[in-house]
Design a protein that fits this description.
716 residues, 24 helices, globular, disordered N terminus, disordered C terminus
Length: 716
């Protein structure tokens, strides 16, 4: 203290340590001045700038990862979807889906406007004897439950029939628009997948030279990547190595301030030990691989011309389901080594591939999918049961709820906690479980995430709403469907509005993967490399975004005949979601992987028609119970609504007849192939991706080979 007062703060000694940032430039890290214990501020409260780290640089790296146009500038938010081809097929089709979904739901909202006006003329919602308070009475007034029994429902039936046809025509139109959009994107944007094929069923001792010789008859080959066993282990070891090196770099800087970081020495020793062990394991694994390289059965072959790749795929195209199932080729000339039938299909985009999963055999992958599906179903039933139970607590605890306000409040608080925990657990566990299935591409992984979360969301919402039957009664102690719409219907509206507001706010501000990590972990970083990693731009999850839109699609259709207000609410949800996602993709997310149209196909061909079929099954139920027995939860069919049965039956028949030829089957487009026949050499495409994983084996095992190199002429 005396020295400080005599010499002044400018004379204090500051140890200096040099290191290199991620670009290799020498930088100087100055530790904090030597302060007394009373003056020393906790490390986690210090701003990052005191460590001589450049937060602006980290933010710039994150911003540079966002997709940009041909001139290198950010896209304008008003850029038409047709000009966003760089986002890839999967992301582009997602935006088309949300856009057209908003249009058709807006049309259905207009069609059901006369129905809502007719419902407002009912008598239950504002009857004091029904004891339906504000604002639930406004919701009930717009629903089918507000109509007195034995009233004609011809207007409702006709409008419902027209809405069903409108949605079906939307699916047919969007399916064609989806194919056209996909072909427009694929025509304008040349990718590695245009030139490449994925070859499977190769033997373990297959070599690159054999693959070059076998597929060379289709045209010149630019590159062959042969997938070897052991890459998953190598990738894991390399990730551990990189983490240990980062830890060492952190501890090296902390060692300069032993008073501030007393555990730095021990941490440095442990990190060094971990690094030595993993380097030893990498060397052993490398020697084992060089001694006996074993192919995992897959290879990526990239041709010089797109027409060569297409001609190869057509030659290997399976003629029927059974030949595809058993791997039988139609051409004896296509047999590898004259005896082994190969399977050939268009290769996925390099950025869409999960390289560590390639060595998993198809049979093992199918077993994993079956096992995880059963486990996912088990978790889904448990979570759905818990959510339905807490919403139907008036069934199980009819007298306990009347014990007092404090007990009722505590019970409601516990119910909310159970609902939140159940939903969060499913949203966290489903992606983790799906990753255990070892899918080859991110697109397939997103499809399974979308399927499971969509099913969970729809089931728990509908069942939780159903158990609200008999939750409230009128003065005579009788319940009816008006009371169900006041309770269960209010819950569904709350779910829709909650997702529209809460989920989109979370998606817009990204508190969990952007704000909190940067605020909490950023000040603790001692190296620019780690700070840049903390500030990395988040990634778009198509499965998560699709499941939210499809969930509300299904809820709107399932209950649309009784609650036409849902069409209006979900139209607004689609508009808000479209612009928030577009803003995030063009300003926040890192450039999306060039995934294929697999997720969009499943949403359009399977989930959306299932949602319409669910509507056509539930609508007659609502019309029957409201028209004939509004105080019963179930009643037999009635001749009073026979016209409704006929109209909805016609709509169901049209859906079943149109599904296979107009939705499932993808028509061939000759003009599209004529456009793609204008070949551009693979070597001339600037910035094109290459089939090579991040932690690849040494270059001498998978180096590029072209036909021109075989005769000693460089392609450049």
């Amino acid at each position: 203290g005396e020295c400080d007062s005599l010499l002044g703060t400018e004379a204090r000694i500051s140890p200096r340590k040099t290191f290199e940032d991620i670009e290799g430039r020498e930088m100087v890290a100055e530790t904090a001045p030597l302060l007394s214990p009373a003056q020393r501020e906790p490390f986690w409260n210090k701003p990052t700038g005191t460590r001589n780290l450049d937060v602006k640089q980290a933010e710039r790296y994150a911003k540079d990862a966002v997709v940009r146009d041909e001139s290198g500038d950010l896209y304008e938010l008003g850029t038409p979807l047709a000009r966003l081809g760089k986002l890839g097929t999967g992301v582009g089709l997602y935006f088309y889906f949300v856009f057209y979904a908003g249009l058709v739901l807006g049309l259905m909202s207009v069609l059901t406007l006369p129905v809502m006006i007719s419902n407002f003329q009912g008598s239950y919602a504002f009857d004091p004897a029904e004891k339906i308070g504000f604002p639930r009475n406004l919701l009930v007034a717009s629903t089918l439950g507000n109509r007195p029994p034995h009233q004609p429902l011809l207007l409702h039936s006709i409008m419902d029939f027209l809405c069903s046809l409108a949605f079906l025509f939307f699916l047919i139109y969007y399916r064609r628009r989806q194919l056209l959009a996909r072909k427009e994107i694929e025509t304008k944007i040349i990718t590695a997948a245009d030139y490449s094929i994925l070859v499977s069923n190769l033997p373990e001792n297959a070599t690159r030279e054999e693959i070059l010789d076998h597929f060379g008859r289709y045209g010149q080959i630019e590159h062959v990547y042969l997938c070897y066993k052991g890459y998953a282990k190598r990738s894991q070891l390399m990730s551990v190595k990189e983490k240990a090196e980062e830890d060492l770099e952190q501890f090296d800087i902390q060692l300069a301030s032993p008073l501030e970081f007393p555990e730095a020495s021990e941490g440095h020793t442990n990190a060094q030990r971990t690094l030595d062990e993993v380097l030893s394991d990498i060397r052993k694994h490398q020697l084992e691989h060089e001694r006996c390289p074993r192919c995992c059965g897959l290879a990526f072959v990239t041709f010089k011309l797109e027409s060569s790749s297409r001609r190869c795929r057509m030659d290997y195209k399976q003629s029927n389901f059974f030949s595809n199932l058993f791997g039988k080729s139609n051409h004896t000339t296509s047999l590898f080594r004259q005896t082994i039938p190969l399977k050939v299909k268009i290769a996925p985009q390099p950025s869409d591939i999960l390289w560590e999963n390639l060595e998993v055999k198809p049979n093992m992958r199918a077993l994993r999918v079956a096992s995880t599906s059963v486990f996912s179903l088990f978790l889904l039933l448990i979570a759905t049961g818990l959510i339905a139970a807490v919403n139907g607590k008036h069934f199980f605890l009819p007298t306990a709820i009347e014990q007092g306000l404090w007990f009722s409040g505590l019970l409601n608080f516990l119910s909310v906690i159970i609902i939140i925990v159940s939903n969060v657990a499913m949203f966290v566990l489903m992606p983790v479980i799906t990753r255990l299935e070892s899918h080859i591409t991110k697109s397939t992984q997103e499809v399974y995430i979308m399927w499971r979360l969509w099913l969970f969301q729809v089931l728990n919402t509908l069942l939780a709403a159903l158990v609200f039957w008999d939750a409230s009664r009128n003065e005579s102690g009788v319940t009816n469907w008006a009371h169900w719409f006041a309770d269960g219907g209010s819950m569904i509206v709350g779910v829709i509005v909650g997702d529209a507001v809460l989920m989109n706010l979370i998606e817009f501000f990204r508190p969990f993967d952007v704000i909190l990590p940067r605020k909490m972990q950023g000040p603790k970083c001692l190296t620019q490399k780690r700070l840049n990693r903390v500030y990395e731009a988040p990634e778009l999850s198509l499965g998560m975004r699709y499941q939210m839109i499809l969930k509300h699609f299904t809820l709107a259709l399932a209950l649309g005949s009784a609650m036409p207000l849902n069409y209006w609410l979900i139209t607004i949800l689609c508009i808000v979601t479209f612009w928030i996602d577009k803003f995030n993709v063009l300003r926040l997310y890192k450039k999306p992987a060039l995934c294929n149209d697999e997720v969009a196909n499943v949403a359009t061909v399977y989930i959306a028609p299932l949602s319409l079929l669910l509507h056509l099954c539930i609508a007659p139920f609502f019309y029957t119970v409201v028209a004939t027995c509004p105080t019963q939860i179930v009643c037999p069919p009635s001749s009073e609504v026979s016209v409704t049965y006929v109209l909805l039956g016609i709509a169901a028949a049209v859906l079943c007849l149109a599904w296979q030829p107009m939705l499932y089957v993808e028509p061939e487009d000759v003009h599209y192939h004529e456009v793609r026949c204008k070949d551009v050499s693979y070597s001339y495409v600037e910035g094109i991706e290459k089939y090579q994983p991040e932690h690849d084996w040494p270059a001498n095992l998978n180096e590029s080979v072209s036909a021109s190199q075989e005769i000693g002429i460089s392609v450049f």
